[in-house]
Amino acid sequence: MAQQIPVDPQARADDPHRDAERDDATHAITDDVAYQRHVLVNVVFVGEPGAGDRGWVLVDAGVMGSKRAIEAAARARFGEGARPSAIVQTHGHFDHVGVLEDLAAQWEVPVYAHALERPYLDGSAAYPTPDPSVGGGLLGRLSPLFPTQPVDVSKNLKDLPEDGTVPPLPGWRWIHTPGHAPGHISLWREADRTLIVGDAFVTTAQESVYAVAVQEPELHGPPMYLTIDWDAARTSVRTLAALDPERVITGHGRPLQGPEMRRALKALADDFDRVAVPKHGRFVEEPLRAEDGSAYKPPR
Is residue 283 part of a domain? Predict the structure, then answer.
């Protein structure tokens, strides 16, 4: 199992005392950014509280069974009947699209993603089977059981613009951060140096049931069993570290902020091969390059 970089708990970006009693189970990161944890993954709400219908954006769509919790958070944060202006997908793995089809149809909302993720979001291609040999923990060993079949939101799906803008999110831009998935993206707001990472790196050992449950803050590379291109993953982490963010919200684990987070992120970028990359594994030996991702077709 790869190593981790411990982070002082004081670097947590969420305030457990302030947010512990919220009925919608969300945790505020900034005035207009909050996240909600669903078993093993986070979804992110971007928009001012009380923003109303079409006044906010959902980033990623959780796991199966999380629809009611996401809807409850939307009502509590933005108002009764408040639909988002868009859903933005960092990528299309099963734990980020669990209720995407239902929400996109119910809310009649566009779904934005990188063009290289389109095959996994329009029903035309499946991801490769996860590699259980790389994880070292129970979730890693169970990973071949995880769904790889695509969802189909083709009626709502839009490619993110090539200029890096995010149409429903003024002031934000998307950054292509492949490695974990061909069209994986992260979202960056320069004004306050806020970074929504997806799974480009994470702040818990996602391969371990214990680590996922306890959520002790530590920096890891992307979840190993689903990462298909470690060279690209290394470049992506270094790209994000070079932004020198003030706070990071990851797809798995607690958000972190401040100098201690930046120290750990730089250490991860500098020592990525030792800390993040498994010694052996299917995609260590034979990486799946981003441009080849759509070669994986769902079985007939």
Answer: yes
Report residues of the chain scoring pLDDT below 70.
Answer: 1-4, 6, 8, 15-24, 135-145, 205-216, 290-300
> How does DSSP classify residue 38?
E
What domain count does the chain have?
1
With a CB cutoff of 8 Å and minimum separation 6, the contacts of 208 are 136, 137, 138, 139, 140
- Contact by Cβ (8 Å): 148, 94: yes
Domain annotation covers residue 21 = yes
Q: Classify residue 117: in a domain, yes or no.
A: yes
- Residue 207: per-residue pLDDT: 46
Q: What is the CATH number of the domain that holds 108?
A: 3.60.15.10
Q: Name the phi and psi angles at 145, rounded to 5.
A: -85, -10
What pTM value is reported for the model?
Answer: 0.90
Would you say the C-alpha torsion 54, 59, 65, 66 has a positive or negative sign?
negative
